[in-house]
Design goal:
It is elongated and about 80 Å long. The protein is mainly alpha-helical. It has a domain of 193 residues: MetI-like (MetI-like fold, Orthogonal Bundle). The longest helix is centred in the middle third of the chain and has 37 residues.
């Protein structure tokens, strides 16, 4: 030993130094670097940011009260005074579109958040414990998946009645099965890994294993699934509003505005066209963002 440093003999194994801690910040930076390469994902993100700002600051961007009626201004085409024209009650279409984004985005993200929490919980329990618990949960999931999301939402709205919270619940129930099935499949692949077995042998509780070891390793596909399901939830909410099962009038929603403009499609096509275009842009942006996020979170994309 010289100057406090011990030399390793030829037949002696060196003792490794302290292991480096996993840098979660560097992983986020790698994900962000992969995400930036996808221009389509940035376009989708920009679209979402614009609509979120419009929804949050609707009272700032909307030039008129969305519920204010003016019979003298009914069915006016787009002009400097009314950028997107007026409807059959003289209400400003642009203002109603901005306020309508609040309902659509609230239902879309709120319903998916609710269905994700319930579905992921069921999938974790079914995949980790297996046995009779898994059989019961997955048969319930199969029953939910056997109904089209829109038909199930219509049935639930007929039971629950109108209202924002009821719409969220009705839309969310249709997506619980998707999250449960995806989560269960990932848990089945992960629970046999060596580090899970080691945690069991060390006496770590099942709850801690699920929350600390299993769930963090399956979050990526769940997040991507959630982003892509938001667009489906917004379309479902718009369909309910189109059928008269959404928020009660005169609260503006995109689906209800499209339904209102059906009788004036030839005389005043802007009443239905602009809500449909806005719905298309939001869903398009969500799909672009979801695809980019999926590629960024996929570890295999780091190889390319």
């Amino acid at each position: 030993m010289e100057n406090g440093v011990r030399e390793t003999l030829p037949n002696e194994t060196a003792i490794p130094g302290p292991l480096k801690r996993y840098d979660r910040g560097s992983e986020f930076r790698r994900i962000w670097k992969r995400f930036k390469r996808n221009r389509g994902a940035f376009v989708g993100l920009a679209i979402l940011v614009i609509f979120f700002l419009l929804a949050i600051f609707a009272n700032v961007f909307a030039p008129y009260d969305p519920k204010e009626q003016n019979a003298l201004s009914a069915l006016q085409p787009p002009s400097k005074e009314h950028l997107l024209g007026t409807d059959n009650f003289g209400r400003d279409v642009f203002s109603r579109l901005i306020y309508g984004s609040r309902a659509s985005l609230s239902v879309g993200f709120g319903a998916v958040l609710f269905s994700m929490i319930v579905g992921v919980t069921l999938g974790l329990i079914a995949g980790y414990y297996g046995g009779m618990i898994e059989t019961i949960i997955m048969r319930i999931v199969d029953g939910l998946l056997s109904f089209p999301a829109l038909i199930l939402a219509i049935a639930l709205m007929a039971i629950l009645g109108l209202g924002l919270q009821n719409i969220m619940i009705a839309v969310a129930v249709g997506f619980i099965g998707h999250f449960a099935r995806v989560t269960r499949g990932d848990v089945l692949n992960i629970k046999e890994e060596t580090y899970i077995e080691a945690a069991r042998l060390m006496g770590v509780s099942n709850t801690r294993i699920i929350l600390s070891h299993v769930l963090p390793n399956i979050l990526s596909p769940i997040i991507v699934q959630a982003v892509l399901r938001v667009s489906a939830a917004i379309l479902t909410e718009s369909s309910l509003s189109f059928l008269g099962l959404g928020l009660p009038p005169p609260t503006p929603t995109w689906g209800f505005m499209i339904a209102e403009g059906r009788g004036f499609i030839v005389m005043a096509p802007w009443i239905s066209t602009f809500p449909g275009l806005e719905l298309f842009l939001v869903v398009f942006g969500l799909n672009l963002f979801g695809d980019g996020l999926r590629d960024a979170l996929d570890p295999r994309s780091a190889i390319s």
